[in-house]
Fold DUF1272 domain-containing protein.
Amino acid sequence: MLELRPNCECCDKDLPPESGEAVICTFECTFCAGCAQNVLGGTCPNCGGNFSPRPIRPAAMLKKYPASTKRVLKAEGCGPARKVA
């Protein structure tokens, strides 16, 4: 089940569970759409994968399966993914 992380790992913007602005990679790294496109160029800096819109969990299911409250922020800052040779 998706964690629905509460913030952008790049800029720390709040991304509540109902946010249509949240995008995730296959490992659930979570970013706002602005950082994903404008800072990261559409590539996850952690795994090198692409981003998809994060699904919105229906309110009834959110009560039963709440979103994560653990904030993840890249301590070293956020920049474009490096190409691996």
In short: The beta strands are 22-24, 30-32, 52-53. The helical segments are 33-39, 59-64. DSSP finds two helices and three strands in the chain.
